[in-house]
Fold:
Amino acid sequence: MSPLRILPEPDRTELEGIDTVWKEEILRAHIGQKRFEMRIGNISVTKCLLTLGGTVLILAGMSWAADSDKDKDQSDISKRIVKAAEVLNEIMATPDKAIPDKVMDNAKCIAVVPSMLKIAVGFGGQHGKGVATCRTAKGWSAPAPMTITGGSWGLQLGGQAIDLVMVVTNDQGMQHLLSSKFKLGADASAAAGPVGRDAAADTDLKMRAEVLTYSRARGVFAGIDLSGAAITQDKDETTLLYGKTLSFEDILSGRVMAPPGSEPFLAAVKKYSTQAREQGKVKTPPRANAASANSQTE
Structure:
């Protein structure tokens, strides 16, 4: 097919000596060419507009999908915080199978991982998301999203979904948690926690560990060995929950206001960490009393 030949616009002076019929044919051909060029131009403009419109629709769809995913992630975090409160309430509701009052009263930090799953066979296949809070001078801190991954403890569970509770018992263990990443049994000493609200036989011995760990599977609550599991700040969920990037230390040291929706979890932690002292089951250590008496004497 021969290429389209573009006719030059005829010069009126050149047409003066040409027969009228041929003159009209030349002018008619030129007008037809102009109309053709206009059609081609209109088609190009239409294609450009369609392409632009399609691009806008695609970008709008991507933005909507991103907003939808963000809303879903935000909802998942809120549900996880509420579920963490439910787990703690249910565990502490059974006195003979609960975390001892002395452990809760002396807790520096408490972390709950609801509905954790063993997602693969063998080592390193365990992964769960939860929230942690630490005791501060003004009360319990805002919740900090966290993950727990790896370790051989999944072999103890038979593959079913479980709830985990971790209690940090001293300042050294708290510093490990504030670092935003540490491994149980390596960076921080850990032990399966004692069970029973009034348990005392092995509580003192167990509390030498920096972190006491518990699990609940199929309604059975017991201590569990989590050695080898890594505790890490969930930075993505932290950003979603607070709207910006914050460190574990900023959140768990009490420098950040608790976000809406965290009240159930913080209320449960406060309730069980103070009720023993309020009920007189846990008394102020003698050293503190002696120090108080000496200061009054002076």
User: Anything to note?
Assistant: The radius of gyration is 35 Å.
